Amino acid sequence: MDWHFAATAFATAITIIDPIGMMPLTLTTTSRFSQARRGRIIDQAIFVAGIVMLLMGLVGPAVLDYLGITLPALTIAGGILLFLIAIDMLFARPTGTRSTDEEEREAQSGENPAVFPLAIPMIAGPGTIATVLLLTNLSRSNPVRYAMVFLAYAVALGITWLCMHFAARFMDRIGTTGTHVVTRVLGIILAALAVQFVINGIVQTPLLHH
Length: 210
Hints:
This protein is mainly alpha-helical. The chain is 82% helix and 0% strand. It has one domain (3-202): Growth Hormone, Chain: A. The protein has helices at 3-17, 19-29, 35-67, 71-90, 101-109, 114-123, 126-138, 143-165, 167-204. Helix 3 (35-67) packs across helix 6 (114-123). The radius of gyration is 17 Å and the shape is globular.
């Protein structure tokens, strides 16, 4: 069992999805719905996000091979994208890699926010997709690692589902300040992971092995 890779996969999945950070958005986008309807919306959002991640995990590596994108290039690009997200998390800023102000206003007037913006881009956004592609590429020819990646994101989605379903109760307990504290801690972890991904990508480039 590759415990180091498993820890990296689980830490990356949890920090990039940020279940705690999903709570305020869930309350905002579902406030006009009944409790039963809100529950169905959350279920749909998790299901759609899970399907998107699964498809990217299964098909993404083949697409990258077809495009000629190497693992070091993907590792560096993914690390840079994750670092940008981490900075926004650290400063409690809404990140453009998830949704823009215009998209959020559109979501407020929409009939069902399950697919947009909850599933895409808030849960399965560019950052999440990049990490899925990155981790599945690192798992090539290793079925145990593949299983770890899918399990890590399944657990992260399960935690996100719980946080979204009990968002009102959690927010009453920890408040806005508590949410920001947790998000900043996750941001620090994500920043460290992002830097490590970039370092690994640079080390793996052919230029350093001539």
